[in-house]
TrEMBL record:
InterPro entries linked: Cyt_P450, Cyt_P450_B, Cyt_P450_CS, Cyt_P450_sf
Matching PANTHER family: CYTOCHROME P450 YJIB-RELATED, P450, PUTATIVE (EUROFUNG)-RELATED
Name of the protein described by the UniProt record: Cytochrome P450
Organism: Sphingomonas qilianensis
Entry keywords, A to Z: Heme, Iron, Metal-binding, Monooxygenase, Oxidoreductase
Family: Belongs to the cytochrome P450 family.
SUPFAM superfamilies xrefs: Cytochrome P450
Pfam families according to UniProt: p450
Length: 410
């Protein structure tokens, strides 16, 4: 265990220009020589090896509630302090940061309804992807992020939830607004926009829940209303909050999955040739994108039992931050981990977390990624980055990796 500048969460964000340019320049030596490192400023242990990260994430006894952490777990307590205290926690904190029994009570019916929707939505998602492609003018360079990677996930989740065409424009704006909540360094003005969007979305969903109770439709909200009537113990406030969480958790990360994947295929034409020659490789492609250049850097857990990771003792109530990006390129688990190979046989990546908090949106993200990347390059097989020598326009959002823009030509 060590305490130094590299072993700090701040150094593992795009606020560090070295990390922003190439995270693995920082993560590789940390994983090799300091696999469990204490960051006293954040009050957490930084874990970078696959075996340790997997052990933490698979442990269903860990907590996501920052209030259960030791006093010096500053980051965990800072996040917890942002929640109101005059209402039940389950009505102000989504299932992402809830523990059982509330976590299981809310997740089970929502997962049941959501997964059933994903199983039947392929045709609708294909229509969403095709509509975005049809709107692109291939005769001139365009920003792939704005034209394609951003609208597809928003319109996809809107279709599943049951957002009508009249409300779609507002829904897109609110979706982008609530995504500001992922930025811990947002400005006061951005915080105002965040709260406005969050309030608008909450009111919208509460109204839709009421409507679906009177006139059921063929959508996720109606499915959840039916489960409520059948005895599912989730109230309207909790349902609206977790619909917003589905939206926030899935939109930006899937945008980045598609954008990062498109960039990797354009930079690796041999892998693109494999995909176009065998479209059945699309699922493997998405898994390799998630491993090689996944959208999310970290996830945190509060230990509820004493544990030892790579020889370092960690006590109950201490916070552990698993660095997913480092674990996903651990050479102890992956052969030739620094190569992007879409048909390689790899161990499962950790980009969706694990245990009881395994990403609920994983099936939809995978399907969207497969359809979007395959259809994009089937439509534009000669798609190229306009300036391959320019530095990629990576966002500066901490703990996420995606592109602000990606200028391409067909």
């Amino acid at each position: 265990m060590t305490e130094d500048a590299q072993a700090s969460l701040l150094a593992l964000t795009p606020m560090n220009p070295v990390f922003k340019a190439d995270p693995h320049v920082v993560l590789r030596p940390l994983r090799e020589t300091r696999p469990v490192a204490r960051d006293p400023q954040a009050g957490t242990f930084i874990v970078t090896r696959y075996v340790d990260a997997h052990r933490v994430l698979a442990n269903r006894r860990t907590s996501r509630n920052g209030a259960r952490a030791e006093t010096c777990a500053h980051l965990a307590h800072r996040q917890e302090a942002q929640l109101p205290t005059n209402v039940p926690r389950s009505e102000v904190a989504s299932m992402i940061v809830l523990d059982d029994p509330d976590h299981a009570r809310i997740r089970r019916p929502l997962q049941r309804a959501f997964y059933a929707r994903v199983k039947t939505c392929r045709l609708r998602l294909e229509q969403v992807v095709d509509a975005a492609l049809d709107a692109i003018d291939p005769e001139r360079p365009f920003d792939l992020m704005v034209a394609f990677c951003l609208p597809v996930p928003i319109d996809a989740i809107a279709a599943i939830i049951g957002v009508d065409n009249v409300s779609l424009t507002d829904f897109r704006q609110w979706s982008e607004g609530v995504a500001l909540g992922l930025n811990p360094f947002r400005s006061p003005e951005q915080t105002v926009l965040l709260e406005q969007a969050r309030t608008s979305l909450r009111d919208y969903f509460r109204g839709q829940i009421d409507q679906c109770r009177v006139t059921p439709r063929d959508d996720l909200i109606s499915d959840m209303v039916a489960l409520q009537a059948a005895g599912a113990e989730i109230n309207d406030a909790e349902l609206a909050l977790n619909l917003i969480a589905l939206l926030v958790g899935g939109n930006m990360t899937t945008t980045d999955l598609i954008g990062n994947g498109a960039r990797l295929l354009m930079l690796n034409p041999g892998e693109l040739e494999k995909l176009l020659a065998d479209p059945e490789l699309a699922p493997l492609l998405v898994e390799e994108v998630l491993r090689f250049e996944g959208p999310i850097d970290v996830t945190e857990r509060i230990m509820t039992d004493d544990i030892e990771l790579s020889g370092c003792p960690i006590n109950a109530t201490q916070a552990v931050t698993t660095i997913l990006r480092a674990a996903n390129r651990d050479p102890a688990v992956y052969d030739d981990p620094e190569r992007f190979v879409i048909d390689a046989k790899r161990a499962p990546h950790l980009s969706f977390g694990g245990g009881s908090h395994f990403c609920i949106g994983a099936p939809l993200a995978r399907l969207e990624g497969q359809l979007a990347l395959l259809k994009l390059f089937q439509r534009f097989p000669t798609l190229k980055i306009v300036d391959c020598d320019a530095e990629p326009a990576w966002r500066t959002l901490p703990f996420f990796r995606g592109l602000e823009k990606l200028i391409v030509h067909a």
